[in-house]
Amino acid sequence: MNKRHALIALNIAAFFFGLSGILGKVIATSPAFIVFGRSLFALMALALLMLGIKSFRWERLHAKGLGLIVIASLILAGHWLTFFISVKAAGVAIATLGFASFPAFTTLFESLGFKERITVREIGLISVICLGLVLVCPSFDFGSASTRGFLWGIISGALLALLIVCNRITAVNIRPVQVALLQNGFICLLMLPFALGEIRSATLADWFYLALLGIFCTGVAHSLMVTSLRFVKARAAAVFFALEPVYAIAFAWWWFNEQPTLRMMAGAALIILSVVLFTRKKAGG
Q1: CA distance 150 to 173
Q2: To bridge 195 with a disulfide, which of 33, 120, 180, 214 should be the other Cys (CB 3.0-4.6 Å)?
Q3: The predicted structure's pLDDT at residue 285
Q4: Among candidate residues 208, 227, 170, 188, the one with its CA nearest the CA of residue 49
């Protein structure tokens, strides 16, 4: 993979991540059980992938590397949990748009963690993304479920930003598939006590959607994201993942007939424009 392939991989990952909100809405279980099922199927898919790669070698982990993976697992579990709480409370569009504020968090966290200066161009592109999010967001009433869901989405976005920065550190020395497998394994064990009461009550349809969520929206997407971070900065990934709410709104329109307003479409257009400009800048060096 090179930088160009990494950008393509990020786009595919964003597509699958955008589908996760839709699946979270149709799965009729608690957010905790959704996180458990998602990590379980992702773990199985990644284990099969590792077994199918003849040249794959399991890398020994030192205490520091294992500690980083555990921390990243806790952050990822929190991100998923708060996101699905947001979906259940406010719906797919509002939840996804709330957490899509994470590019600003990522730029801040990465600049602090790696002591990298934020460029004027990055500030401008993130400002355009924020303007797009403002256009898409509904009016706020802090007593409503939609507003509470939106706030949960913002918390989810901040946790995702921490995860991206943490994965940039681990991706340097540890194989991406191994990182993703270990993270999902830790999350599965962490959420198991909270999911035991719903295992028998979950329907066949719930398990089917959880399989889609775990294999494609997690196993495939997560591996692509971690691999891409070997070649691009975390803030590049963050801006590119701003496409996720666009995909989510499109899925909600098709699946639930939730037709976006002209204001929402204008905001989505601004987000796409920002991603295109950022990608052209990276392609030009």
Answers
A1: 36
A2: 33
A3: 46
A4: 227
Mark the ranges of the chain whose per-residue pLDDT is less than 70: 1, 53-56, 136-140, 142, 169-174, 234-236, 238-242, 275-285
Q: How far is CA 113 from the centre of its chain?
A: 20
Q: Can you read off the two tokens belonging to residue 26?
A: 């149709």
- Can you tell me whether residue 215 is helix, strand or coil? helix
229-240: pLDDT as tens digits: 778 776 667 666
Non-local CB neighbours of 182 within 8 Å, separated by 6+ positions: 69, 73
- Interval 47-100: pLDDT, tens: 887 887 666 677 777 787 788 889 999 999 999 999 999 999 888 888 887 787
Per the CB < 8 A criterion, the answer to whether 163 and 72 are in contact is yes
Q: With contact defined as beta carbons under 8 Å apart, do 217 and 22 qualify?
A: no
Tokens matching residue 179: 């990182």
Phi/psi for 258 (5° steps) reads -90, 85
- Alpha helices per DSSP H over 115-170: 120-136, 145-170
Q: Encoding tokens for residue 99?
A: 């957490």
| Cβ count within 10 A of residue 235 | 28
CA 99 to chain centre: 9
Cα 283 from Cα 40, distance rounded (Å) = 37
Amino acid in position 219? G
Q: Compute the radius of gyration of the chain from its Cα atoms.
A: 18
Write out the two tokens for 139. 């009016």
Residue 122 phi/psi, 5-degree rounding, is -65, -40
| Count of beta carbons in the 10 Å neighbourhood of residue 256 | 14
